[in-house]
Amino acid sequence: MKKQFKQKAESHFDINLAPMLDVIVAIIPMLLMSVVFLKVNMIEAQIPQIVSQVMEQNKKEPPKTTISLLITDKSFRFVVDDNGKKQEIAVNATNGVYDFEHLYKEAFLIKQKYPNIFKVEIKPQSAVALDNIVKVLDKIRKAQKEDAQFVVHDPKTGESTKTDLMFPDVTFSDVLSDSSGA
């Protein structure tokens, strides 16, 4: 007796990959269009050790004084909130041209009054050009050479040092909304 082996019937079937490819072809361009291409640049600047320690401590325990700078198409306006007491200092443009020197002088006076505050919150209006924002940052970052330096005290160690830095720690807020100050 011979055993007969039955061959198993091979089953072949085709998968229709066309719908899957259609989905992939549709999704990839949509994903590429929705991705935000952003390049972040950082400028490393040397900051004295005591100043960086004070800045770190201010991040851990925020000071009771905050300084904001509102930039409109017609003026600059510092808002100093000293423990709930607000003071506004306006620097108006003349003939549609910003007065950067007057801005610097007001920033210098504020820094003399609050030497341990290094952070300023910038609130530009949407109509303000990027070039003007960069000029503002350049003016308020460092004291000019002919001006005196500021004495900074580290409250933990009691050490003191002199620095020409005014407001190197900048935060932007209300960038997407219209910061008209109203």
Structural summary, described in words:
With 182 residues, this protein is an alpha/beta fold. It has helices at 18-34, 49-60, 100-113, 130-141; strands at residues 65-71, 75-82, 85-92, 119-124, 150-153, 160-163, 169-172. A hairpin with a 3-residue loop joins β1 (65-71) and β2. α3 crosses α4. The longest helix is centred in the N-terminal third of the chain and has 17 residues, at 18-34. It is elongated and about 110 Å long.
Cα-based radius of gyration, to the nearest Å? 30 Å
For the termini, the CA-CA separation is: 103 Å
> Which blocks of ≥5 consecutive residues have pLDDT under 50?
none
Query: Largest sheet, described in full?
Result: 5 strands, mixed
| Classification by helices and strands | alpha/beta
Overall strand count? 7
| Chain oligomer state | single chain
- Shape assignment: elongated
Number of helices: 4
Question: Helix content range of the residues, please?
Answer: 25-40%
Strands in their spatial order, largest beta sheet: 3-2-1-4-7
**Average pLDDT reading:** 80
What letter string, H or E per element, gives the SSE order? HHEEEHEHEEE
β-strand amount: 15-25%
In short:
By secondary structure, this protein is of the alpha/beta class. It has helices at 18-34, 49-60, 100-113, 130-141; strands spanning 65-71, 75-82, 85-92, 119-124, 150-153, 160-163, 169-172.
Give the tags.
182 residues; alpha/beta; 5-stranded mixed sheet; two-stranded antiparallel ribbon; 23% strand; elongated
